[in-house]
Amino acid sequence: MVRENQEAYYKALEDAGSVGESTPFIEFMLEIILKTLTKVKKENVPKNVPLKRLDKIVNMMKKDKNITALELADKLGVTDKTIKRDIAKLKDEKRVVRVGSFKSGYWEIVDEI
Predict the structure, then answer these.
(1) Which of 4, 7, 59, 78 is 20 to 30 A away from residue 97, measured at CA?
(2) ∠ Cα 51 88 44 (to 5°)
(3) Which pLDDT value is given to residue 101?
(4) What is the CATH number of domain 49-112?
């Protein structure tokens, strides 16, 4: 996005230098960040992905009760941090329970208890 607005970027730097403060540059960067976030929100975020991903996680746990967060992340193409957040949500919703330790335990699906 900065590359697309390269002239304005250099002008903001020049303005900041001539007035002796960073305000013009900060305002430029904040505007670019806002435009970028708006563009990403409109174009790149599919709807209901987290809910579908939660269902996929439960199904994968049904198939393999010993599956790890790293394996889930790898198979779903997300970070392990995202999976851990999803698992916390599933636990809060009482959809899954971890039996035993994270190292040697297994997943139990609540609706099958």
Answers:
(1) 78
(2) 40
(3) 86
(4) 1.10.10.10
SS3 assignment, position 66 = coil
Taking the domains of the chain in order of start, what are their residue ranges?
Answer: 3-43, 49-112
Please give the model's pTM, rounded to 2 decimal places: 0.56
Predicted pLDDT of residue 113: 43
Long-range contacts of 55-63 (CB under 8 A, 24+ apart): 57/83, 57/86, 57/87, 57/90, 58/90, 58/95, 58/96, 58/109, 61/96, 61/107, 61/109, 62/109, 62/112
The CA-CA-CA angle for residues 20, 29, 36, to 5°, reads: 175
Give the total residue count for the chain. 113
- Over the chain (113 residues), what is each successive 10-residue block's mean pLDDT? 89 94 94 86 59 93 94 94 92 93 89 54
pLDDT of residue 64: 96
